[in-house]
Amino acid sequence: xxxxxxxxxxxxxxxxxxxxxxxxxxxxxxxxxxxxxxxxxxxxxxxxxxxxxxxxxxxxxxxxxxxxxxxxxxxxxxxxxxxxxxxxxxxxxxxxxxxxxxxxxxxxxxxxxxxxxxxxxxxxxxxxxxxxxxxxxxxxxxxxxxxxxxxxxxxxxxxx
Length: 160
Description:
Helix content: 10-25%
Structural class: alpha+beta
Largest sheet: 4 strands, antiparallel
Strand content: 25-35%
Number of strands: 4
Shape: extended
Distance between the termini: 47 Å
Order of helices and strands: EEHEEHHH
Number of helices: 4
């Protein structure tokens, strides 16, 4: 088992959610990194699983097709060793003997970072026309549903 500090209270859990639409062979998979408050790794695991399961949903889109969000499981769970404050290390990854070209691919320019990228122009008809949509642009636990995902789920022919 990994080293867990005695006073550990925070964990990171990555949940895998699969979005499917009836009669569409494509799927959309989200891997969402969530903050979990727990007093032990076992409790963190249970809470991570609960957070993922809380996002399961099913509804009929504007085309009469069944849309399903299915929680597939956790792909990551680890303790946060630092106190939660500015600059706290939440997670790390170690790679050995990495070529310069690979490092260059990992490093993004400011414009490539998610907070600076423009919002996609992909929109569904229901969004443009103000028609009925799922209750929120977020899952039941606040996990974002991206613009492309929303368009796929609400009106899949627009992405062809």
